[in-house]
């Protein structure tokens, strides 16, 4: 058929196993880009991505390849590696027929290797295992081959040994893509079915959708319909990335590329939706479409209340580029006016906050993150609560349910005891364990999502000295004995510090929070009590003693300019404080507090 020469594939890997380096090498080898034109790393574009070493969003790239006199069109689709974006990963995989599964030759199989491989298998993709970084002195290709066979049930003979750095095995990989991966599937349908697997906002063109055409064709001028939302629009442009945008007359069945429509707002186009021709619509959508729902919520407030409008404008602008972020205005007694924001997960939350600070130059405070609780009230109704402030009074509550996760943890066997202790400390249960090879184990655990929000991953890394990894998927809701804990500073509740905790943990957590606050808060002009309460009961208490800090005292008689500098500095310090009643709380306190418990 006419699509025999097309291969749509992606590269899946654990963080840092060398995906970007290898992708760049494939582009270079197929002369899609010249070596001298390549920036150090072509596919990762945002600064933050580079710093954190995660791929958030990169576009699909088309390459031309020849083998035995036959011309192939390869479309390499990038997938974000992190679990927060797992729906996006699954949509990107759905656009492919095959995947290169990279495994670091020294590190071996990690949590995301397994999670991503399973996602790819669920989509029915053909998998080519690649043992990467074979040039490393610590490379153990035989051990890794065994892991691939044991953990993923892929025959070891299929693994290609490669190095994105030195170029070993690159030709083998390209040849395997042509020979082992199947041509595009589902091309026969009479009507157009086009999967939107990702999208980005472009200031000039509006929303650019990354698409995979399964059947039919799309071209500029077509009136199309989004089957999930029912929205109709006109196609303005179609084309491919090679690697920059190259417009084409049409995108036919089997192809991967981009589509620009008249829709200007990212939130109106859903990832996973199916585009069809409005005049001749397909009868069924492509499988797998779902609305993504935020899992983690947190308040974001301007440090300086007069910055509210600036923050509002920044949030609106931010959402243009990130449709997964949801927000609505809220107000807090302690913090004034701000926004309640919903995120896909913790990493997503951190990225949003960090970008607001850096790219939008906002001084912001974020409140303790919360999951979405389902509260069964005595009147029989169910209320969803994602802000502790709105937790109903205990006498109105029949029970509370919280979301759980199913976590897969990989760790060196020597740390298994400590990991099990951590899981149980976090109210988790280990469902089963499996040996990866003589030195590593895989644990499958169920944990409350709330318990892994803050420091679970850091703790895991520190216990395993960096050799452990985790991946998770959202599990069921479960009933738990949860209570709302408030923090009172100078007898006033600081709503931004309220949180929902398990009853058994309230006291120890309250104590830690009070101690931490005492450490963080500067001494004030008067004595201040800090208390943790559950209902009307005080469960922990600390006192900040009175003291007046005079930073200039030591420069007695000294040089005036130095004294002025210190005063300036003190003023700076004041600016970064939040006034709560008569007490100033440093901006930092809100962030520091997040890191306890
Ligand atoms: P994320 O996109 O952040 O998940 O990372 P990645 O998987 O794209 O990894 P990347 O290509 O950024 O490589 C991670 C690190 O491994 C970098 O320091 C690379 O220089 C190094 N690296 C990548 N490929 C090889 C290789 O074949 N051999 C060696 N020795 N190092 C490599």
Automatic annotation (TrEMBL):
Tell me the keywords, alphabetical order: Cell membrane, Elongation factor, GTP-binding, Hydrolase, Membrane, Nucleotide-binding, Protein biosynthesis
GO process terms (BP): positive regulation of translation
Q: Mostly located where? A: membrane
Q: Which InterPro entries match?
A: EF-4 (IPR006297), EFG_III/V (IPR035647), EFG_V-like (IPR000640), EFTu-like_2 (IPR004161), LepA_C_sf (IPR038363), LepA_CTD (IPR013842), LepA_IV (IPR035654), P-loop_NTPase (IPR027417)
GO terms, molecular function: GTP binding; GTPase activity; ribosome binding; translation elongation factor activity
Q: Report the HAMAP family cross-referenced here.
A: LepA
| Protein's UniProt name | Elongation factor 4
